[in-house]
Write a structure and sequence with these properties.
heterodimer, A: globular, B: about 350 residues, D-Maltodextrin-Binding Protein, domain 2, 2 domains, ten-stranded mixed beta sheet, 12 helices, about 15% strand, iron transport (chain B), Ferric-bd (chain B), ion transport (chain B)
């Protein structure tokens, strides 16, 4: 494809907007001076933090790959009983913020803190990042390759490892990357379960006498870790690319294997994971609501907070999609080194903690865009910087499913450009873009630290209300906000599950 | 293919509108942010480092009494102070309501606060306000040891916070080193006994295998439910938990131990208020600060948040000894803004990551 200057220019602008926080980091870190930077960074503590953070990211990513691929395979490729029900169940943990899950666990299990408990909770909350794309890839993959493999005498397991796994490799590595980046930036579980990660150290540095310099210097290490992760993922991706589907022609459902005696252990495993990921928070919330006597404000206040959450997340999702569109289209239509670099750059802020994004946009708002300061739009920009990769991945995926050849054919058959856009491109790409928007929307709903710093004064959201009540031990008052947050978040989650194809009945039995 | 440029053009238009918008905003940069005049517009903006559920009812009372609307931004004290420092003199805030003297001191140090009128600050004893007159205490809060009498007999209660580094307390103490009140307490040790002693205390505490928590709330929860024998926190948490459980502080299992004899462990800190320079002349802001130090607000704090009033003539909270009866350490709260050294000590001790 010819590189399109317009698309390229827009993508550059979008990436530049998303990189405002990194620019801020650079400016502020430079201000600190070399000596101060060295003093903060060249310590055994920083080395230990980096090792522990990477270790946690590795363990959680491995756990998520295992759970995500396992559930996705059972739900899409076997005769598992109630498979659609389990498909939705496996996506739902995405609706549970890690600070709610962490809190639920520590109030259920005494002394549930440190590395392994933190890894468990993070895995349970983030495996849908792997499950959803892998389930979609398994549903959409061309069964012919597997059939050929089987007909050539390979067993079921070898076919799975040699053919199936390769077909879904982009989904695997993409999902795994999102999980790893999420772990780098997570504050909720790390803080509540006391896992000493970089992000926790950054929050503590802020809390300890509002020491911005130390916190920002530490944040630069996160940027470096992110670059390392991205480089690692890019390496695997390049090798995986040729296994991707060629077109979205007529789809044929893949064959389902019979589980036989293994049906019930499989059901028990999925039910067990759901009980840990969803049951524990649900029971804990219910208990808190029953035990305490503090009551939230009126229903009106809860409704206002819910309305604010929805509106702010909607604005965040809209702006994020707007910025993601040129980057995603470019990466699908004009792949190349430069495009790849742009796309990777859009991932850079994803691993930064919300508080750093928040502060950088405070700085930007105060000094550069004052009229935007403490308006919805600056917060939306914060969300965009945080969650752009989720949107870019969705747009790129959707655009890839609408191969340019289809548009060319439509044109050659005499359709005008508008008609082609309406009848070919939009129908093919919109669902994918919609799924990206749902994911970003959902993630905005759960976001807390940047929301606290950037929201318009006086605007409470479900997440901030939840936070304000838990800081004074008013758990009973906090519980309805938590419940509503999870409930509202489960709507886009359900849409995502539906979108991944696991709800389709055509695969039947 | 022509459809793609069309779509791209659409996206470009949208994105460039956005960028132009940002640039335009940048161009307006020089417009004065402070349109505040000495006339009353019946509206103030408060940055609150104190929790919404504790302060909001009071602010509503204030609006009812005076007709002045309060726009409030809530966060924790450190976050709000950070935001103020980042915003500098363009901050939309008129007033900073903070949880701790150290935070007020740090913001004052950057020259962001106006000097308050003597007629306002004189209502508060000198111990509870800034020497410079740039902030004034609104409530007082005492550091205490909270303990569970089933696990710690009254006879074993320590006379000094330094006893907690002894072998008898190994694994038994909950602390929240990231909490501002803990830092201020360590600063108090430093001010009272010197840096070496503070360092020794932190090292002793760390060696004694303390239960590190992120906040005071979890410590009290665990002490009250018998999971933890004792912990260091502020006195009013007991009142909050009692309220949450629908009982009185006496009805809780957890009890408070006030360190006697001017021990550093018995530091009395303040929550307080500072006025941003641009709002120095705003009559609404003056009304607000007056209100905070008036009988209604002081009574509200004593009854609803279990803190000590700092203005004479208002009765203290139920269930705790009177403020005047506490043997507080001889420390000037103005000296507590030197947080950096304290933070370095806490970091060095290994109590925080």
């Amino acid at each position: 494809m010819v590189p399109r200057p317009v698309l390229f220019g827009t993508a550059v602008v979008a990436v530049a907007v998303a990189l405002i926080p990194v620019a801020y980091l650079g400016v502020r870190t430079a201000e600190a001076g070399g000596e101060r930077i060295a003093e903060e960074l060249l310590t055994a503590r920083v080395g230990l933090l980096a090792l522990r953070t990477l270790g946690l990211a590795a363990v959680v990513t491995a756990g998520c790959l295992l759970l995500g691929v396992g559930s996705a395979f059972l739900v899409t490729r076997t005769d598992l009983p109630l498979r659609r029900f389990f498909g939705v169940l496996a996506a739902l943990p995405l609706a549970v913020p890690t600070y709610i899950a962490g809190f639920a666990w520590i109030s259920t299990v005494d002394r549930f803190e440190g590395f392994w408990p933190g890894a468990l909770v993070l895995t349970l909350c983030s495996y849908p990042y792997v499950f959803l794309p892998v389930a979609a890839a398994l549903t959409g993959a061309d069964p012919a390759q597997e059939e050929v493999s089987r007909s050539l005498g390979r067993g079921a397991w070898r076919t799975f490892t040699d053919v199936t796994l390769r077909q879904i490799r982009p989904a695997l590595t993409g999902g795994g990357l999102l999980v790893a980046l999420y772990v780098l930036s997570d504050f909720g579980a790390a803080s509540i379960l006391r896992v000493d990660t970089f992000t926790r150290a950054i929050f503590i540095a802020f809390d300890l006498g509002f020491d911005r310099t130390a916190a920002l210097v530490l944040s630069t290490v996160l940027v470096v870790l992110t670059v390392l992760l991205l480089a690692g993922e890019s390496a695997t991706r390049r090798r995986g690319e040729r296994y991707a589907r060629v077109g979205a022609g007529s789809r044929r459902p893949p064959a389902r294997s019979r589980l036989g005696w293994a049906r019930w252990p499989a059901v028990a495993a999925l039910a067990g994971v759901a009980a840990l990921a969803l049951g524990v928070p649900a029971v804990s919330l219910a208990q808190r609501m029953a035990v305490g006597v503090s009551r939230p404000g009126s229903l009106g206040e809860i409704a206002v907070a819910a309305g604010n959450s929805l509106w702010l997340s909607l604005a965040g999702a809209a702006l994020t999609m707007l910025l993601a569109l040129p980057i995603g289209l470019l990466s699908a239509r004009a792949p190349g080194a430069l495009t790849g670099l742009l796309e990777r750059l859009s991932y850079l802020t994803h691993a930064l903690p919300g508080v750093v994004i928040g502060l950088s946009l405070v700085f930007f708002g105060i000094n550069v865009a004052y009229p935007l300061y403490q308006t919805t739009w600056l917060l939306a920009l914060g969300y965009a910087a945080l969650f752009l990769p989720l949107a870019v991945a969705a747009v790129a995926g959707a655009a890839a499913q609408a191969p340019p050849i289809l548009e060319e054919v439509a044109r050659s058959l005499g359709r005008g450009p508008v008609a082609v856009l309406r009848t070919v491109t939009l129908p093919l790409t919109l669902p994918g873009i919609g799924a990206g928007a749902a994911l970003v929307f959902l993630t905005c709903m759960k976001e807390l630290p940047a929301t606290l710093l950037l929201r318009p004064t006086g605007t409470d959201t479900l997440a901030t209300e939840l936070w304000t009540h838990t800081t004074v031990n008013a758990y009973a008052a906090a519980a309805p906000y938590a419940a509503l947050l999870v409930l509202l978040s489960s709507v886009p989650t359900w849409l995502l599950a539906a979108r991944s194809g696991i709800l389709e009945s055509e695969g039947g039995r | 293919m022509p459809t793609t440029p069309r779509k791209a053009a659409l996206a470009l238009t949208a994105a460039s509108l956005l960028v132009l918008g940002l640039a335009a905003c940048g161009a307006e940069d020089d417009a004065p942010a402070q349109a505040e005049t000495p006339t009353s517009d019946k509206k103030i903006t408060v940055y609150s480092g104190r929790s919404e559920s504790l302060v909001k009812p009071l602010l509503e009372q204030f609006t009812q009494a005076t007709g002045i609307t309060v726009e409030t931004r809530y966060g924790n004290t450190a976050a709000m102070a950070t935001q103020l420092l980042e915003e500098g003199d363009r901050s939309p805030a008129d007033v900073f309501l903070a949880q701790d003297a150290g935070a007020l001191g740090a913001v004052a140090k950057q020259g962001l606060f106006a000097t308050l009128d003597g007629s306002v600050t004189d209502k508060v004893p000198t111990a509870y306000r800034a020497r410079s007159g740039q902030w004034v205490g609104v409530t007082a809060r005492a550091r205490v040891l909270v303990y569970n009498p089933d696990l710690v007999p009254e006879a074993d209660l320590p006379a000094s916070v330094f006893d907690l580094t002894g072998p008898a307390w190994k694994g038994k103490i909950g602390v929240a080193p990231t909490n501002a009140s803990f830092q201020t307490f360590v600063t108090a040790i430093k001010v009272q006994h010197g840096e070496a002693k503070a360092k020794e205390f932190l090292a002793g505490l760390k060696a004694n295998d303390p239960q590190v928590r992120d906040g005071n709330g979890p410590i009290l929860d665990e002490v009250n439910s018998g999971k933890l024998p004792a912990g260091l926190l502020n006195h009013y948490y007991l009142g909050e938990l009692a309220k949450e459980q629908g009982t009185t502080p006496d009805g809780l299992k957890a009890k408070l131990h006030f360190f006697p004899g001017g021990d550093s462990g018995g530091l009395v800190n303040v929550s307080g208020v500072g006025v941003l320079t641009k709002a120095a002349q705003d009559p609404d802001v003056k009304t607000f600060v007056d209100y905070l130090l008036g009988p209604d607000a002081q009574k509200y704090f004593a009854e609803q948040t279990y803190e000590y009033p700092v203005v004479a003539g208002v009765e203290g909270p139920a269930g705790v000894p009177a403020l005047s009866s506490l043997a507080v350490p001889d420390i000037d709260l103005n000296d507590l803004d030197a947080l950096e050294a304290t933070i370095a000590l806490i970091k060095e001790s290994g109590l925080v990551p």
